[in-house]
Amino acid sequence: MLNYSFMQNAIFVSVFISILCPCIGIFLVLRRYSMIGDTLSHASLAGITLGLMSNQNPILGAFIFTSLCGALIEFLRSYFKKYTDLILTIVLSLSVGTAITIISSGKLHANADSFMFGSILTVTRFDMIMVLILSAVSVLTLILLYHQMVYIAYDEEAAKVAGVKVRLINYVFSILVASAISVSIRIVGVLVLSSMIALPVATALQLGKGFKHTLIFSIVFSIIDIMLGLFISYYLNVAPGGFTALISVFVLVLILIIKKIQSSISVVRGK
């Protein structure tokens, strides 16, 4: 299996996805913005179709369009401060409407199905270069803005009072989310991409550790989810995206069960 170049490409991309998605996801989850990740995941489909229609790289198209949608969400927050769900509906309607219109027009120069469900066969060398560049820039930006983003994640209003440039960092973070989504599309697929952003973080949170340990465990669970999903889906001949999502849910449930058993044992010992 590992002798195939497409599988080697898929593993290369998967490693970067495993690291990048939890790094972005932990801030989304702590800010209770996980549904923004889901909205931008679906928004990427419009970017993909625009890229395919114009004979450009679909990952680049997804990155540009998703970045614009992320910036739009941040812009609309000024007008709908108490209605975040309404903002997501507006952006989702814009992006999905664009994608469906282009797909139904018959003007696409390629099939978009592989991007919806994920496919290990479609990862090209150029995609690998794009993934490497976007991931490196994103991780470097996260390192540089780490303390400010942690501050904002726990208390945005207090961060503003402390002089943190919250609005600017929120726009930068929107681009980082777009980057994470763009590099993950080929393997995971649009429809279940948000699971790779949120579920490893949700699993790590069950361990009750501090922020840094939660981030590390999120990456560990992400690697387990994606690698198991990738290898098992290859032998089952199913889409890796959907199966990876199932693995993510299974690992989360397993951790919850183990945690429940440990709690029960502690109660028995206490008696």
Automatic annotation (TrEMBL):
GO terms for biological process: response to zinc ion; transmembrane transport. GO terms for cellular component: ATP-binding cassette (ABC) transporter complex. It is a multi-pass membrane protein. The chain crosses the membrane at residues 6-30, 59-80, 86-105, 126-148, 168-193, 214-236, 242-261. Pfam families: ABC-3. Its main location: membrane. Keywords: Membrane, Transmembrane, Transmembrane helix, Transport. It is found in: Cell membrane; Membrane. It comes from the Bacteria. InterPro entries: ABC_BtuC-like, ABC_TroCD. CDD domains: TM_ABC_iron-siderophores_like (cd06550). Belongs to the ABC-3 integral membrane protein family. This is ABC transporter.
